[in-house]
Amino acid sequence: MLSQRTAEEGWGARTLENLAKDLKAAFPNVSGFSFRNIKYMRQFAQVYSDENRAAAAAQIPWGHNMVILDRVEDNAQKMWYIQQTIENGWSRSMLQLWVDSDLYAREGKAVNNFKHTLPVTQSDLAEEVLNHPLN
Known about the structure:
mainly alpha
């Protein structure tokens, strides 16, 4: 609805600003209806238009979603960071650190000879330890 209304009224109409004011007036004891949050809500709906993506993103805190929406351009990377946050229980500051250090691009890139020098079970374990995001 936000995207449709903005498109119909145009950017100069201050649609989101007016909506934020209207919501604050209608629900004075409820927080979360700032202009900034409404912009994020619209962006969230646009980026995660697929139900599965939206369901995954809904599993992490709102602040984490704002970090991903602000700092990650590619949708596949967004989903990867969401999944890693769910699996590893990253705090917002840890998520920011991994995004800023481009963990997505670096994961699995370490050169090793584990497969050639260790038994298979130990090789797999060594690979997992080496590639774990908290290392």
